[in-house]
Amino acid sequence: MDSTQIADLIKLIWPIIAIQFGLQIYALIDLFKKKKTKSLSVPAWAIIIIIGEILGPIAYLIFGKSEE
To answer: What is the dihedral of CA 41, 47, 50, 56, to 10 degrees?
Structure first.
């Protein structure tokens, strides 16, 4: 790969990475603010959010977020 191909790849991937980090930060802030979830404990959800990359925060927002 030459430098132009690498630059094109970075331009393609950075929005996905930004969305992933944004979702993780939002989910972690929400998790620790409420300190209450529907199913799993707070530490378990924190691990899922961090390790689950983009699917972890989405799973928390769908299945774990408390309605309060």
So the answer is: -60
